Every structure is written in structure tokens, then in C-alpha cells.
């Protein structure tokens, strides 16, 4: 049987497998009598992954018989322009750091699928700490010199892409395989690559398929003709949850423009927390060394508010809280590990982690009530339509056509105040209703955002006392042409629903703004 046939057979087996039981024994307890050298890969001793596994079994160590605290599954969709940065991030994950533990450990397994554009295969690596740090003082000139040969972590397997396999299918099979082979208490999934935000347009529906002209959106690009549309990503996470029995603890898009209300709503039923950037993100991505070191230690440098602990389950919450701060700290000028790599990112950074449960139960319902109030506000006085349309189209906009939701609410608060002043400092019934809905929505937004970090170009403020940007965005058309061009795509989202005005809400308000 050839390699790809074996892959397909394994895929079929995983697809129909029952719910995955997690071994009751913890590796941290089962392996505590062994030394680190017994259960970690040693390049000079093991040579390759098979040798390493055989040595483990001879020592009485079987990974499938115990669970770790975390399995980190990183799916890297690497277009040609990202290749050196993929190698840089892999070297970060395995870099030797004095007094800290990087890579995989007795608590954590770090598994990467490297899918490089136009390659006829993809590689699966088990990341272990190497004997040296090859990432010190990397910059754009030095990163261009990196190659896959510098990666010291073992190659688990190299699977040939003998047949066209969609990005969606590859991601799903990788996650199912990783969960089955490396059982853990928590799963931390990262999709790494280019991102453009919301789309429900599958690449096969684009003509010609070799160009992305005429659409915007998607994640994990493999050249111009293949990517994940967001409902496709939702389907992957849905299938993984149904197959494994649990939602993913933390899902990260290490990509541009992926932290939007529309995207997060698609993933909210199948994740506990999501993290991403609402803006263009640096090619250098996240600070992987710091993230893995904190997972391996079981402690997080950034203290999460104790008052919220009863709302969230343990370490997944602590990780979700820490991620924005870790990545903001990494780019601080003169201090952060990645400050030399991209000095300007400290200004542009947007990093936000959200609670999927609170998005579903608090923020989305509040936005729909806000939409109803906006409709009533316009119907009370038709001239308000122009004021609201001006607010919508003023921005500032991110490249995906979205605006920060908190910043939009801040602008809306000024508009309402001006409206009240124009009525002799008396709020009309619908202006008062809108003000109340706006306040409730901003409260829900603060409730949903676990933590966020914004670059120095954003003003500093206290979210509990003032309105302002919170790190998650929402689509607001910049002009009428964009509305007509993209509304069909957005209407396919769960956030918009099949018939937006059957139950008036946020989507109905957007449509009414352009039906004049």
C-alpha cells in the first residue's frame, strides 16, 4: 500500500471513530519517576521519530496510555511569501531558553503540520526544545536565510499530496489525528497563515479559480485557488467536536483580520475561547516561545482577574487572558523578544481573546437589540438616517471592511448626545431606547472580551468607565457599492441569519440603511 493510500485509510478510520476516551492517568504522574531525557527526543541519540518511539516503548513509556495537560496543534498554511517566517516560528518553538522550558514537555505536546504552497507533500513535526537558540536577534535580512534543515525537532511523517485535498479536509484530518495520537485534558489549536476575514465563498465557486479578484475573505491560503471559507472552518470544528466529544479549549487564528463578530459567531458553538487580530498582522506572528514556556510551567505571568475565575474553566481561561499581553510584550521597543524583528508592530498591534459562550449568550443578542433600536431611532425621525450613514462610513476601517465594534459604539454615543442636544437637551423616546441599548451592548462587549492589547497608536482608556476600541471588529460598509457587492456573502453567516428582517436585528438595520 502506498503512502497516500495509507493516509486515506487512516482518514476514513478517524472519520468514523467513536468519541475519544482520554486516558485517566496523567503523564505528569505516570512519568515522574523518569528523567526528562527518558521521554524527550534527543537528536544525537534518537536520529529519527521512529527510533525515539521505540526507545520510549522499551522504557515502558507509551504516550497513548496517559494524558497531558495540553496538546498544541498548529496548522501552518504557508504561501511563498511566508516560508521564511514559518521557519522562524518553528525555530522559536524549539529554541533553548535558559531557566525556561520550550517545545514539548511532560505537560505539553506541540504538534505542527507544515503545508508549504506548491509542495507535493506536507510535514508533521513533534516540536521539542533544541540544544540552541537559533532565533536571537532575527530581522528581515536574517530570516530570509532560514531553511527547513535548521529544524531539529523530529519529523513524525511526510505525507504526499497525491490527489487534490481541500484545505478544509486537511485541517480536519490533522486535528482528529492529533487528538487521537496525543490525548490531553485541553486542546489549543492554531491556524497559521494569511487571513482576510469573513467569506462564505468556496474557492471552487470563483471564476477563474486562479485569482482572488472579486472577493475578500478566508483563511489558510494555499496559493490563490485554495483556502478555508469561514463556514468551512466552522464545519471542521463542528465535526471535531462531534467526533471527540468536546469543544476546542482555545482556537487561534495567527493571521490578519480574523477577529470579527461574524467570524467568532461561526466558531462559538465549538470553542471555549478564540483569539486573533482584527487588523493586518505582522508576518512574525505570535511569540511562540513565551506561550509554550508558560504552558509548560503551568503558570502565567499575566495575572487574570480573580473575580472572573468562576465564569471560566481553569487553564484555558488563563491562557486566553495571557495571549494578548504575551504578544504585546513581545513587540515592546527595546524590551520584547520580537521588537527587533518588527519595530513598528508595537504601534499597529491588535490582539483580542474572547469567550465564545459570552459572545453567543450576551454580545450577539445585545447587537440584535441594538439593531432594533437603531431602526426605531430612524423611523422616529427620518433625517437621522443621514447622520447614521455618515457615522457608518466615516471609519476608521480595517482592510476587510470592518470597524472596531467598541470604537463604533463610541462614535454612536457622540451621535446620540448630539441628537439629545438638538432636542433642547431632552432625549426622545427612541433616542433614550437607543442609548440604553448601546450601553447594554458595550457592557456585553466588555463581558465577552477576555483580554485585549492594542498598539500605541490607540488611545489609552478604562473600558469599564469609557467607550473605546476593544479589539474585535464588525462589518460596516464604507459605501453603497460595497454593501451591494458583499451583502450576499455576509447574509450566509450565522450572525446575519437566513432572513435578516424576519426578526429585525443588527443585519436588518444594515440592510435598511441601504434600501433608501
Fold and architecture overview:
- The protein has about 525 residues and is α/β, with parallel strands linked by helices.
- It has two domains: about 5-20 and about 65-350, Rossmann fold (3-Layer(aba) Sandwich); about 360-515, no CATH class.
- It is built from 19 helices and 13 strands.
- The chain has a nine-stranded mixed sheet with strand order 4-3-2-1-5-8-9-10-12, sandwiched between helices. It has a two-stranded antiparallel ribbon with strand order 6-7.
- Helix 6 links the parallel strand 1 (about 70-80) and strand 2.
- Helix 10 packs across helix 14 and helix 14 (about 355-380) runs antiparallel to helix 17.
- The longest helix is centred in the C-terminal third of the chain and has 25 residues, at about 355-380.
- The chain is elongated and about 80 Å long.
- The N and C termini lie far apart (about 65 Å).
Give me some keywords for this one.
single chain, 516 residues, alpha/beta, Rossmann fold, 2 domains
Give the structure's gist in a few sentences.
The chain is 41% helix and 15% strand.
What's the structural blueprint in terms of helices and strands?
Blueprint: H1 3-15, H2 27-30, H3 36-39, H4 43-46, H5 49-58, E1 68-78, H6 83-94, E2 108-116, E3 121-126, H7 140-143, E4 155-160, H8 167-181, E5 184-192, E6 195-197, E7 218-219, H9 230-244, E8 248-254, H10 261-267, E9 271-276, H11 288-297, H12 314-330, H13 345-348, E10 350-355, H14 356-380, H15 384-394, E11 402-404, H16 405-422, H17 429-448, E12 449-454, E13 473-475, H18 480-490, H19 506-513
Helix pairs in contact: 8-9, 10-14, 14-17, 14-19, 15-16, 16-17
